[in-house]
């Protein structure tokens, strides 16, 4: 079986997003004299590993025309299990990390199998999992934040000389690997094919169920990994972590130009989407913009970025559309 | 060429939105000079009136003392979003502020990042919700707490409620986020007052400070315990939820509700009799107390010590 196919991703697809990102950085640098600094950027990128890996999983799910609403809860559950195992059962960090990933993977496989095998919309199945995993997280932690302290800081603490955390390095590696999987492997081709026309895939003798389960398994596993990152970052397991995170992840992926109806998308662009959201959050916080304004501005930027992306090949048409 | 036009359009939207939506209008307007102290106020949910009031109080104070310090106010989306609050502290460190006045969303989990801020030379003052004392000691940190005695305040509310009940009456308590120190203190205060007056506490549950959750829990308690005579809620948002549940159960007058914080909606209810009492810990001034404390500590270099702020019982006839 041939594993690798030709590259279908053209690098200039990212140019529009990089433009938006640079523009935001310039704007914030003008408005706040403290924004344009190494400390700010280091702080900013060390906050995004969890959202980054979850957005990667979400990209895969959206590519096959599915959706995963459970990622925030699954992240909290995986982190909760990891925290309880370390704090109350004296598990080693590595063993607890493994358990954390297994929890995420299990949730993902359940999501994928139930939705693909019984052909139930993934919106419904993952909505159920959102509740189940959140309940599990409360159950595991007794609804209390488990404080773990510096013993779990390994993932969140900055690597000497680089200044960025191990979690970020892992997250960037995940982005690179996932982009290669998407654009150069058979799995990637099948994802795009399933998202474009699932029936055609079935008729050509490929079983989409297997591949869809694999896609949701990836999303679950990455949510588990995000949980471990979050745990290292907060040095505690918070059963309330990641409420609404699925929306941030979907926003990042959609900003990155991935289609909600499947078949089109890019992992690298999702990462750029995450960066845009992070720059917005940091910049607006440093300016001390009021909370309602923050949310309005963030919403406007999401829409503007997607609009820009939609028309990136034909900006003339956008202006025509605006004028009409 | 047209690409540049679009970039301009987006930047204009952003710039408009920033200036248009920020009534304080200080988004980069005054050139910050280095001799003014830079104070960051890191709050909990700015969707909660209590914290909105606190922020407004701080902003008014800053406006009156504009030549002595500048103020950055930030809050999180919901009360339990620890990650966002940790991120905010880091962002304030990156902004090189001199002072961080923080109302932590959790008594323990914010400490590692706050410890880093202290080590970076930032003066940190803790308001509203107290950091865990054992953990502070364990980390070798002294962070002054400027805030109300929640336990005494809750006990005063509970004692007043007990005067309107008979010994042996059934009561229920709706608590805040269990891991938060102020939630624990208020719970202890309520429990102490109820036990002292000989009431039977039939249910203690947490509604995470939230109104909708409290309404659901109160409704369940009301149907589970038909003899219930009072609900003690650890904040006013939850008390409002409890009042809604009492009304839906048709038990107005039979079940008394007390709260904590004296937000305006709760004060209205106290005046109309739908709620019996609440406590005012002068939330509007709480951040100001913290800021003034930090400024004087910076000026005098005095050793950090805790400072108690007043808590008043609010009943019908008192605003």
TrEMBL record, chain A:
Keywords: Cell membrane, Membrane, Transmembrane, Transmembrane helix. It comes from the Bacteria. Pfam families: BPD_transp_2. One of its GO terms (molecular function) is transmembrane transporter activity. The chain crosses the membrane at residues 12-32, 44-64, 93-114, 121-141, 161-182, 209-229, 241-260, 267-287. InterPro entries: ABC_transp_permease. It is found in: Cell inner membrane. This is ABC transporter permease. It comes from Exilibacterium tricleocarpae.
């Amino acid at each position: 079986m041939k594993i690798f196919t030709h590259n279908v991703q053209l690098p200039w697809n990212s140019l529009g997003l990089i433009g938006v990102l640079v523009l935001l950085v310039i704007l914030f640098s003008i408005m706040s004299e403290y924004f344009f600094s190494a400390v700010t950027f280091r702080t900013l990128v060390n906050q995004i590993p969890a959202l980054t890996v979850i957005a990667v999983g979400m990209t895969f799910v959206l590519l096959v025309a599915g959706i995963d609403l459970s990622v925030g809860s699954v992240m909290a559950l995986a982190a909760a299990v990891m925290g309880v195992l370390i704090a109350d059962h004296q598990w080693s960090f590595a063993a607890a990390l493994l358990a954390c990933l297994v929890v995420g993977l299990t949730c993902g496989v359940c999501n994928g199998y139930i939705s693909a095998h019984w052909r139930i919309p993934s919106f419904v199945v993952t909505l159920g999992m959102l509740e189940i995993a959140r309940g599990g997280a409360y159950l595991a932690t007794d609804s209390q934040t488990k404080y773990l302290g510096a013993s779990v800081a390994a993932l969140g603490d900055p690597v000497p000389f680089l200044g960025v955390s191990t979690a970020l390095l892992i997250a960037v590696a995940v982005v690179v690997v996932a982009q290669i999987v998407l654009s150069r492997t058979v799995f990637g081709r099948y994802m795009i094919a399933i998202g474009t026309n699932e029936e055609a895939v079935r008729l050509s003798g490929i079983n989409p169920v297997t591949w869809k389960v694999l896609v949701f398994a990836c999303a679950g596993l990455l949510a588990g990994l995000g949980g471990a990152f979050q745990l290292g970052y907060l040095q505690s397991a918070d059963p309330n972590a990641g409420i609404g995170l699925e929306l941030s992840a979907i926003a990042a992926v959609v900003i990155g130009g991935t289609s909600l109806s499947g078949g089109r998308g890019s992992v690298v662009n999702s990462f750029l989407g995450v960066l845009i959201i992070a720059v917005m959050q940091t910049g607006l916080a440093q300016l001390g913009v009021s909370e309602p304004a923050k949310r309005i501005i963030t919403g406007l930027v999401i829409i503007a970025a997607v609009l820009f992306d939609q028309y990136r090949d034909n900006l003339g048409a956008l202006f025509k559309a605006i004028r009409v | 060429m047209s690409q540049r036009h679009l970039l301009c359009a987006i930047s204009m939207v952003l710039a408009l939105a920033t200036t248009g939506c920020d009534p304080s209008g200080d988004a980069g307007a005054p050139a910050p000079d280095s001799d003014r102290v830079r104070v960051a106020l890191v709050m909990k949910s700015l969707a909660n009136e209590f914290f909105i009031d606190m922020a407004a109080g701080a902003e008014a104070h800053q406006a009156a003392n504009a030549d002595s310090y500048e103020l950055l106010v930030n809050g999180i989306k919901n009360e339990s979003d620890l990650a966002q609050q940790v991120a905010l502290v880091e962002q304030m460190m990156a902004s090189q502020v001199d002072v961080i006045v923080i109302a932590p969303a959790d008594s323990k989990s914010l400490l590692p990042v706050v410890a880093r801020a202290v080590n970076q030379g930032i003066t940190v003052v803790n308001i509203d919700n107290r950091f865990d004392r054992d953990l502070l000691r364990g980390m070798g940190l002294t962070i002054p707490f400027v805030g109300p005695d929640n336990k005494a305040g809750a006990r005063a509310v509970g004692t007043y409620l007990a005067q309107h009940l008979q010994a042996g009456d059934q009561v229920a308590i709706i608590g805040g986020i269990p891991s938060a120190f102020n939630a624990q203190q208020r719970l202890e205060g309520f429990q102490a007052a109820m036990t002292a007056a000989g009431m039977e506490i039939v249910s203690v549950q947490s509604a995470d400070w939230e109104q909708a959750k409290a309404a659901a829990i109160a409704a369940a308690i009301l149907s589970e315990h038909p003899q219930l005579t009072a609900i003690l809620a650890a904040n006013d948002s939850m008390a409002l939820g409890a009042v809604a549940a009492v009304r839906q159960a048709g038990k107005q007058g039979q079940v008394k509700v007390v709260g904590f914080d004296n937000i305006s909606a709760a004060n209205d209810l106290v005046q109309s009799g739908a709620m019996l009492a609440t406590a005012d810990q002068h939330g509007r001034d709480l951040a100001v107390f913290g800021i003034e404390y930090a400024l004087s500590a910076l000026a005098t270099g005095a050793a950090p010590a805790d400072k108690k702020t007043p808590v008043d019982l609010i009943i019908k006839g008192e605003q």
